Amino acid sequence: MKISEKYLLGLKKAYYDNNGVETWDHFDQIKHGASKTDMEQLKEIFPDVPQPLVDLLEYVDGTYWRTYADEEIAFFFLGSDLNEYPYYLLSSKEMIENQSIAYTYYADYIDRKYDHVEIDSKITDKSANLKWLHFSDCMNNGGTS
């Protein structure tokens, strides 16, 4: 069984176990996966995109204020180390549109322009080389997660 299949089974069970049967079933009925064109473009921009993320996008093309069957949904789809802050999955189009967002917001930090901000040395120190894939937002409207 694929990682994504295990994840989806566990997520469905979590919804079912927490009085979310109707919510999950409705979501599962209206959602659709990413288009082939969008997936090809995403893979072109991010050639190292992990296959489990591709599989999830083929199952559902985003859960962050996403419209399916003329209905806008906001559906918690990814977990967190903080239970009270689950994550939404962005759509393939949002990932493509956001390909420069890390540079836009974090170049000064990555380039170590602030002495008072501690940055792990394993993180690149050349913002021009950033190829971060922004694939989710926290339920607190993205926050700084």
Catalogue the unreliable spans.
none
- DSSP, total strands: 4
Global shape = globular
- The rounded Rg comes to 17 Å
Q: In which order are the strands of the major sheet placed?
A: 1-2
| Proportion of strand residues | 5-15%
List the defining traits of the structure above.
two-stranded antiparallel sheet, single chain, 6 helices, two-stranded antiparallel ribbon, globular, mainly alpha, 41% helix, 145 residues
Question: What is the fold's blueprint, element by element?
Answer:
Elements: H1 3-17, H2 21-30, H3 36-45, H4 51-59, E1 66-68, E2 71-73, E3 87-89, H5 92-97, H6 101-110, E4 136-138
Antiparallel strand pairs: 1-2, 3-4
Task: Give a short summary of the structure.
This protein is mainly alpha-helical and 145 residues long.
Model description:
The chain is mainly alpha-helical. The protein has one domain (3-138). 41% of the residues lie in helices and 8% in strands. It contains 6 helices and 4 strands. It has helices at residues 3-17, 21-30, 36-45, 51-59, 92-97, 101-110, and strands at residues 66-68, 71-73, 87-89, 136-138. The protein has a two-stranded antiparallel ribbon with strand order 1-2. The protein has a two-stranded antiparallel sheet with strand order 3-4. A hairpin with a 2-residue loop joins strand 1 and strand 2 (71-73). Helix 1 packs across helix 4 (51-59). The radius of gyration is 17 Å and the shape is globular. The two termini are 30 Å apart. The mean pLDDT is 91.
